[in-house]
Amino acid sequence: MSTEVLSLQQRGKNLESVQEMNRASVLRIMMKRSTCSRAEIARELGLKQATITNIINDFLSWGLVVETSLLSGKKGRRSIGVQISQKSFYVIGVRLRRTSYKVGLFDIYGENIVMEKYPYDKKLGPMRVVRMMRESIENMLQAHADKRIVAIGVAVPGPYFSEKGMISSMTEFPGWEDIPFQEEMAKGFSIPVIVDHDSNAGALAEWWLATNEQLSGTLVYIGAGDGIGAGILHDGAVFRGAMGIAGEIGHASINKDGPVCECGNRGCLTNYVSTPYMAQRINGALADYPGTILKRDSSFFEIVEAINKKDPLALYVFRDVMGSLSIGIINVICAYGPNEIIISDRFSLIGESIIDTLMEMVTEKAKRNYFENVTLRLGSFTKDSSFIGAAALAIDYCFGNSNIFERSAGAQA
Ligand SMILES: [Zn+2]
Question: How many whole angstroms from 157 Cα to the centroid of ligand 1?
């Protein structure tokens, strides 16, 4: 099969098919409910049971779905349950970071089966690193040639222009803005390669793979670590905006007189909420806190430990950073009106105290009725959520384009 480069625009075209839309809706419900009956799916979607039966028959013939033990229905009636088969299809997830990348094999429920991490030297330049990533993926595909691997998801640091398939310029990541990233990543693969911002990937991981049965609403996933960005989902679909950079809350200013950011603006949130900023603030204030357990260039893990031990310097810097993040959160609430805001990435290692502190600060600053229905919580994945998100990108794409499963099943038959 020839090289396939799938842009995000093509996704809309595929969904024009009513059958594809219905199949996608059925898969969404099955993924969210684990096991359900055909009648329940028909009822929930408002479709005829015959339509659902036809769709499920296709899924059964591809091996995507299996029938399960009998369920007790209303009035003691029993019906056969159906569920997506965990061992049916697989995806590859790749997370690119500034000094390393990870490649993993995942099942269709996003369970990570194999993970390989590759550090790289920035001096190699992006083209060389992309070639290494392609080789690592190819090796994983060959090592698992017995499995039906249907798509590759790649989560990249943002800002990412999804319309162009290109990474935006960053001082920490020189040269990457010059290459057609998506096109280069997809070279030589016969399965779709889906690239997106790591925050969008993290948001999709929460949507698809966390234990939440909700099918509608607005979810904002805030990835706070080396920098800060957000992924916005409405009814399960990523909101990207015209260029693909919607959710770049890190470059929304919270101080017109603040330092000039690499994006050209002043006082961007990312300059006040990041792990390097915390370390820098601690270094600067060490002399004022002689009793602190922190030292020059403490690691983020040491800072987290000091916060949890209520070290005065750690708490001072933590509260300063949370003060800035709480402004960012109020901006998010006002801009997107979400049901749920999730704090993830490295900051979530601080634990529940981050949520308590943010709630206290948001309550101080904003009107209660602005956010009384908003749930603020920690991310569901304690390990690298954007890596799991890379798999979620691939799974989400396949659910919207279920002919991918049909093609894969046909190829193996
Ligand atoms: Zn900026």
Answer: 14
Q: What integer is the mean pLDDT of 116-136?
A: 95
Which residues lie closer than 8 Å to 181 by C-beta, 6 or more apart? 126, 130, 156, 165, 166, 167, 195
Distance, CA 249 to ligand 1 centroid (Å)?
9
Q: Are residues 30 and 118 in the same domain?
A: no
Alpha helices in 179-242 (DSSP H): 181-186, 198-209
pLDDT tens per residue across span 9-45: 455 555 457 888 899 999 999 998 888 899 999 999 9
Which of these, 275, 352, 346, 360, lies nearest to 308 by C-alpha position? 352
Q: What pLDDT is stored for residue 15 in this prediction?
A: 47
- pTM score over 0.85: yes
Q: Do 279 and 310 sit in the same domain of this protein?
A: yes
Q: Residue 177, SS3?
A: helix
Ligand 1 centroid to 159 CA: how many Å?
10
Token pair listed for 69: 């033990």
CATH code at 330? 3.30.420.40
Which of 58-62, 201-205, 211-215 is the least confident region?
Answer: 211-215
C-alpha 370 to ligand 1 mean position (Å): 26
Q: What is the number of structural domains in the chain?
A: 3
Domain housing 370:
213-379
Ligand 1 geometric centre to CA of 364 (Å): 26
3-state helix, strand, coil in the chain (%, to 5): 45, 20, 30
Task: Note the pLDDT tens digit of each residue in 362-396.
Answer: 999 887 777 788 999 999 987 888 999 999 999 99
